[in-house]
Amino acid sequence: MLHALAAEPSRWRYGYELGREVGLKAGSLYPILIRLSDRGLVEASWEDEPSPGRPPRHLYRLTDSGREMAAELVLPEPEASPVVPATEGDGPGRATLRGAW
Fold first, then answer.
1. pTM score, two decimals?
2. Where are the domains positioned within the chain?
3. Given 65, 81, 86, 94, which is the most exposed site by the fewest CB atoms within 10 A?
4. What is the CATH topology of the domain spanning 2-73?
5. How far is CA 49 from CA 23, 38, 45, in A?
6. Hey, CA dihedral for 87, 92, 94, 99, is it positive or negative?
7. Contact at 8 Å (CB) between 100 and 81?
8. Under a CB-based contact definition with an 8 Å cutoff, are residues 95 and 84 in contact?
9. Which residues of 79-96 are buried (b: 16+ CB within 10 A; e: fewer)?
10. Is the pLDDT assigned to residue 97 strictly greater than 60?
């Protein structure tokens, strides 16, 4: 979650958009956002001008404290590492990641 918010820390993001990006459903996403907000790491605001026929939605972005924490905790996304089929020494039915670290 922090990685997604830290990508553009000053940009306001919709919860739905964040959930899709990080692969979380609303039942997991919003409690996390509420906890981050309670801890002063994320700020929430109502949308100023909702689309016609749509209720206002919450928007989220990192606070200064959230940006500092994200800088400490969020590592760059690792490059994709190929999955190499298991070899004799890897044990039965196990694949290994090589070059991932």
1. 0.66
2. 2-73
3. 94
4. Arc Repressor Mutant, subunit A (1.10.10)
5. 27, 25, 12
6. negative
7. yes
8. yes
9. eeeeeeeeeeeeeeeeee
10. no
